[in-house]
Design brief:
heterodimer, A: 264 residues, mainly alpha, 85% helix, elongated, B: alpha/beta, Rossmann fold, 2 domains, six-stranded mixed β-sheet, 9 helices, binds adenosine-5'-triphosphate, binds magnesium ion
Chain lengths: 264, 253
């Protein structure tokens, strides 16, 4: 337990010294701000159009009722952040193990009394902290809506969407950790993580109409299926379970991969 | 204190280390000699548990390295061939990290780090970034991390590479100091590999010479000196094969 925090502490400090953390946080702030603003302007523009149309278009009134902050702003905003995490998280995780191998510091870690599971979990914990900061930042913009939006968006929906985003970030982090354990080259680790995460997203395309047999498996593995529920405000234990199972699997894979280096 | 039993390591179809056995007690400083590619680094990696042996055992302080890894590893300090340094950390921060992962309790770390820096002549460098240090100073940090948790067994792979003459003699003194008895402290067992024969004569009491992964010689140095043999001669005879080796020496444990 102690070992985990020692590893995580060193890793976090190096994120901020390097300074991967600042780059990632700044990029995320800029991009999420941009997405939020563009969705907000979009929202206002459509809102005004609908209001103008009220006089001569009888359907506009119905459309106006449907045109709310929840569906027209919060949901697309959070969904867009998924793609930002897709390349930011691998950027954070790429060095976790590969730089150890390149520096020769793996010889220090792997000959220390620490169990490999502590090393893996410590590194994961460091990324979890960074992902938490990112999702915290992502939450700031919707907060504005609670202050100034009228009517305010649905709190439950915002929270479950953010939870979904957080879980996706944590899943990407475990994938990135695994990718980094496979190679001593950071660039390869980055692309490997990117492709694996993208794969989890794109599995959606392979989900046929009939979710039976192989289609069912693909549907279960597909990240979007589970994220979408959370985005719509549906917190289902099945979806939460998906994220825990996937994260756990990638952590175990990372451990096995690091172990195999020790035992090769 | 540390014992290798029939250690072998196979890389593909090439046998890097072949049935190597020896044991080293507290107070001994053993020079591990052999030409390039003899298997010194591979052997040391097996002794520290970085590389698993293809067959054979390592026992450290009574603990089997592969059955009780944590207990065994705690007793070993290791300087790999390339010092395992994080370039972005400060010297003191790095040593504190190593002390922690080696299992020292937090409250003992500051003192352990100070002592290691003192012994390796790093006091002035404590706040410097490791990546900015010269090669010799990086090597010193490497030695400091091996001794920071005061392990009873020290495994040093070419410890004096890149050091200036003054520091080399400091490190020799340090190693001599670690292996000699002192009040309230137990002696260390030290095994170091090197290519500098005078260094071996200066600090080691015993030498183990290997070639192509097999042990060629394992004898106390003063015994050899008494016979009037220099290391230079031995190296030439055992390794290069200039003369027929005298019978009974090779492989005698
Ligand atoms: N990971 C590896 N894969 C394949 N072969 C290896 C590996 N590590 C070492 N070897 C081989 O094992 C043999 C012994 O290498 P080792 O590094 O132990 O030699 P050494 O005695 O330390 O040499 P030097 O004096 O040059 O440091 C060499 O032939 C080397 O090529
Ligand atoms: Mg070597």
């Amino acid at each position: 337990m102690n070992g985990i925090t020692v590893i995580a502490g060193r890793e976090l400090r190096s994120f901020f010294v390097m300074p991967v953390a600042y780059v990632v946080l700044t990029l995320f702030a800029l991009l999420s701000g941009f997405f939020f603003l563009s969705k907000l302007l979009d929202f206002n523009f459509t809102l005004m159009q609908l209001q103008n149309n009220l006089a001569f278009d009888p359907r506009a009134a119905d459309q106006l009722l449907l045109w709310n902050l929840n569906d027209a702003l919060i949901t697309p905003y959070l969904a867009s952040l998924l793609s930002i995490l897709l390349f930011l998280v691998p950027g954070v995780t790429m060095g976790l193990f590969s730089s150890e191998k390149a520096n020769g510091t793996d010889e220090l870690l792997l000959t220390s009394p620490l169990p490999i599971s502590s090393i893996v979990l410590g590194k994961y914990l460091a990324v979890v902290v960074l992902v938490s900061l990112l999702v915290g930042m992502a939450a700031l913009f919707p907060c504005l809506l609670f202050l100034y939006g009228d009517p305010a968006p649905d709190l439950g929906l915002v929270l479950s969407g953010l939870l979904g985003l957080y879980l996706v970030g944590l899943l990407y982090a475990s994938v990135g950790l695994f990718a980094s354990s496979l190679t001593h080259n950071q660039i390869i680790a980055f692309f490997l993580a990117f492709v694996l995460c993208l794969g989890l997203l794109l599995l959606e395309l392979g989900v046929g109409d009939s979710a039976r047999g192989l289609g069912g498996v693909v549907a279960y593995l597909s990240l979007v299926e589970h994220f979408d529920n959370l985005l719509r405000g549906v917190v289902d234990t099945g979806d939460l379970g998906y994220f825990f199972v996937m994260i756990g699997s990638f952590l175990l894979l990372s451990k096995a991969s690091v172990e195999s280096v020790r035992w090769r | 204190m540390i014992e290798a039993k029939q250690l072998s390591k196979r890389f593909g179809d090439r046998l890097a280390v072949d049935q190597l056995s020896f044991s080293i007690e507290r107070g001994e400083v053993v020079g591990f000699l052999g030409p390039n590619g003899a298997g010194k680094t591979t052997t040391m990696r097996m002794l520290t548990g970085f590389t698993p042996p293809s067959s054979g055992k390592v026992i450290v302080g009574g603990h089997d390295l592969f059955e009780e890894p944590a207990a065994a590893r705690r007793l070993v300090g290791y300087l790999p061939e390339t010092p395992p340094l994080y370039p972005e950390m400060t010297v003191a921060g790095y040593l504190r990290f190593v002390a922690r992962i080696q299992g020292l309790p937090k409250r003992d770390c500051a003192e352990a780090v100070d002592r290691a820096m003192e012994r390796c002549g790093l006091k002035e460098q404590r706040r410097r970034i490791i990546g900015d240090l010269s090669k010799g100073y990086r090597q010193r940090v490497g030695i400091a991390q091996a001794i920071v948790h005061s392990p009873p067994v020290l495994i040093l792979d070419e410890p004096t590479v890149g050091l200036d003459p003054a520091q080399i003699s400091d490190i020799r003194d340090l190693i001599a100091d670690l292996s000699s008895a002192r009040e309230g402290e137990l002696q260390h067992a030290v095994i170091l590999s090197t290519h500098i024969l005078p260094e071996v004569e200066a600090i080691c009491r015993r030498i183990i010479m290997i070639q192509e992964g097999t042990k060629r010689l394992d004898r106390p140095l003063d015994e050899l000196k008494a016979e009037g043999q220099t290391l230079q001669m031995l190296f030439a005879r055992e390794i290069v094969g200039e003369q027929v080796p005298s019978a009974g020496q090779g492989g005698a444990a």
